[in-house]
Design a protein that fits this description.
- The chain has 15 helices and no strands.
- It is mainly α.
- It has a domain of 71 residues: Alpha Horseshoe (Serine Threonine Protein Phosphatase 5, Tetratricopeptide repeat), CATH 1.25.40.10.
- Helix 2 runs antiparallel to helix 3, helix 7 packs antiparallel against helix 8 and helix 12 runs antiparallel to helix 13.
- The protein starts with 28 loop residues before the first helix and ends with a helix.
- 46% of the residues are buried.
């Protein structure tokens, strides 16, 4: 059987900087300079340099919670999640309670969802109106399959976020749409994906997820259109290629289907996603085999 389901995806996560003067204030001018430089380098995406500056600040004052919390954030960007957890634990020891937020993120990235929830619960007790905490906790609930709880947190995030922050609003609507989709609420999912697209036309994830709803409804023409929009914004998205190929397959356009599937397989290979690569090759083989059988029957 050729049919494969269209899988929606697209989780992001909010992060923020702990101000360098929070928790215990830096007393040494050198420490303050290292902290300021670390925050600046982090905002500029120079994470290795930021890590060095925060480490220098810690060497100057080892009980400075802000330095540990910010180095935790940098470790998350560098995908050093175990080091991030250790830094956040030290930050909490020295009174930087906002480090619960970053430690929750480190647990989340490690797939330790229950521990992530505990940290976000602690964070929200201290900051009950912070949309970032609600949003990130919603993502954890979504990963645990607790979709109703995820929707409740996404709703709270939408209540507290600035209406002017269109990009972040689009992100929340997109991920609430995923929760609705997981519950089989296609109307709710469609509404949220449309909102995300209207708020941020560069959001390839929202176009992809909107296409998946069309795919589930067997509306392959619209699915192809939305997958195409997603690929225009993110050409190296193998899932969009694979699922657009399947939509072409259901339309009977075998040449277009095989072209997309081969390109999707190549993307998986380049991304070193070898299991998905092998599965796509098997799918291509199945389609080619079914075409050969059909041709032999016609002959």
């Amino acid at each position: 059987m050729i049919l494969r389901s269209c899988i929606s995806f697209g989780l992001t996560i909010f992060m923020f900087f702990l101000a360098f003067g929070s928790a215990k204030a830096a007393t040494s001018p050198n420490t303050q300079d290292f902290l300021k430089l670390g925050v600046l380098e982090t905002r500029n995406g120079n994470y290795a340099a930021a890590w060095l500056n925060f480490t220098q600040a810690i060497e100057e004052e080892q009980n400075l919670g802000a330095a540990y919390s910010n180095r935790c954030l940098v470790n998350i960007y560098l995908e050093n999640y175990w080091a991030a957890k250790a830094d956040c634990t030290l930050a909490l020891t020295f009174g930087a309670n906002s480090a619960y937020f970053h430690r929750g993120l480190a647990h989340y990235r490690l797939g330790e969802y229950e521990a992530a929830l505990e940290n976000y619960h602690e964070f929200m007790e201290d900051k009950p109106y912070d949309e970032r905490g609600y949003y990130n906790r919603g993502l954890v609930y979504l990963s645990l399959g607790k979709n109703e709880e995820a929707i409740a947190d996404f709703n709270q995030a939408l209540l507290h976020i600035s209406p002017a922050d269109s990009s972040q609003l689009a992100t929340i609507y997109n991920d609430r749409g995923l929760a609705y989709l997981s519950l089989g609420n296609l109307q709710g999912a469609t509404t949220d994906f449309n909102r995300a697209i209207n708020l941020d036309t560069s959001n390839s994830r929202a176009y992809y997820n909107r296409a998946c709803v069309c795919h589930q409804l067997a509306n392959y023409v619209e699915a192809i259109d939305y997958f195409t929009e997603a690929l225009l914004r993110n050409p190296n998205h193998p899932e969009a290629l694979i699922n657009r190929g399947l939509a072409f397959y259901h339309q009977g356009n075998m040449q277009a289907a095989l072209t997309d599937l081969r390109q999707g397989a190549q993307c998986f290979c380049e991304q070193n996603r070898l299991t998905a690569y092998q599965q796509t090759l098997k799918l291509i083989e199945d389609i080619q085999h079914s075409l050969s059988l059909a041709e032999s029957v016609i002959v």
